Structure formats: structure tokens, C-alpha cells
Amino acid sequence: MFQFKCFNCGSDELSYEKWIKEREAVLIQPDTGFITYIDQQIDDTNVLPAECRFICRTCKKPVLFHGSSDIQTEAELTDYLGFTVDQRAEMQAEFEQIEKQKAQSAEQLLSDEQGSIFVDPEN
Fold first, then answer.
1. Sequential DSSP letters for 36-56
2. Is 3 helix (H, G, I), strand (E, B) or coil?
3. pTM for the full model?
4. pLDDT digits 0-9 by tens, 33-53
């Protein structure tokens, strides 16, 4: 039951993506101006938590909980995988429908405002 399957590409491979602080020494050749980066140092204790998430290893699409927020913790992933594949597909479909409705509403709003932004409504 606790198996991952990407709804985008069908892959069952999962990755954990995080943004970390990384430093490299920079050497500039005085004669040529050639730049060389050396001694990469990764500080994996300095992680941007807002950018940590589980993603599909194949297509890199984030795994979404209830179709709306990135899954960032193991607990969230376990909860997500606790749903059946059909339940997850249903949640994803609901999210996609909501996103489609939002896009249509935004499109309609732009259409309604088209031409009326700089027009005096009384003339």
C-alpha cells in the first residue's frame, strides 16, 4: 500500500529535493582573467526549509499532498502513501479541477476588465 507512483509520468522512483548553502573558492588568473572554482564546500546544515520536498525522480514534478502543497516531511509522505492509489488520483483530479477553475476565473476577470481600465464608465 505504501508505494509511490507519479501521476504525471507513471514512474515509481522518488527523490528528496532540498536547497542548501554551498560555497566554492574562486581563483582569478591575473594574466587572462580566467575564473576557476575550487574546493566546493556544502553546508547541509543550512537548508532552506521552504524548498525541501519530495519529487518524482524521473520527471522532477513535486509530490503534492491533497494536490495542493508540497510534501516536505516523512510523516506527510507516509500519510499521503496511506491513501489508496485511487484516493490519491481523486485528490489530484480535484486539485487540477480547482486550478482549472481558478485559471478560467482569472481569464474571465481579465476579459471583463479588457478595455475598461482606461475608459470613463460614465462616458
1. EEEEEEEEEEEE-GGG-EEEE
2. coil
3. 0.58
4. 788 888 777 776 666 656 788
